[in-house]
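Database export, one record per block. Field names are fixed; values are copied verbatim from the stored entry.
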Amino acid sequence: MSKVAIYPGTFDPITNGHIDIITRSLRIFDEVIVAVAPSKKKEPFFTVAERIKLIEQSISKLKGARAASFDNLLMNYAEETGSIAVVRGLRAVSDFEYELQMALMNRRLNANIETVFMMPDQEYIFLSSTIVKEVLSFGGSVKGLVPQAVEKAINKKIYR
């Protein structure tokens, strides 16, 4: 039986920090589903379909990783996919409080699915999709912050 984990998020856009977490997760799990959630609070830069395509392009060389989307309760999706864990990235202490609340609620919803917290390489500890969008909003370069496929898609979208 393979060990499947879900790495959920909006991934708008996926960053090199996300890729680092996916790569690290594949050392523990046989399969990692990068699960794109629609954002009801945030105004997305890319559609869900665009994000899935960009993730697929960005993880194509990572054996065991795949992209999907979901629009129901994460614990229900985890059950549907046969996942045993949810992977969450922690960059700073400020992430911990929110992530702890989510992990405890998820445990209450389904105690059979674990939450695994992972830290990205220190090179990416500051990096988030929000910061990438902030840099873009002021005309800055995101080279090295996101996979090449994402950088190309961003440039295409901005400079149409």
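Remark 1: The chain has a mean pLDDT of 94.
Remark 2: Residues 93-109 form the longest helix (17 residues).
End of record.
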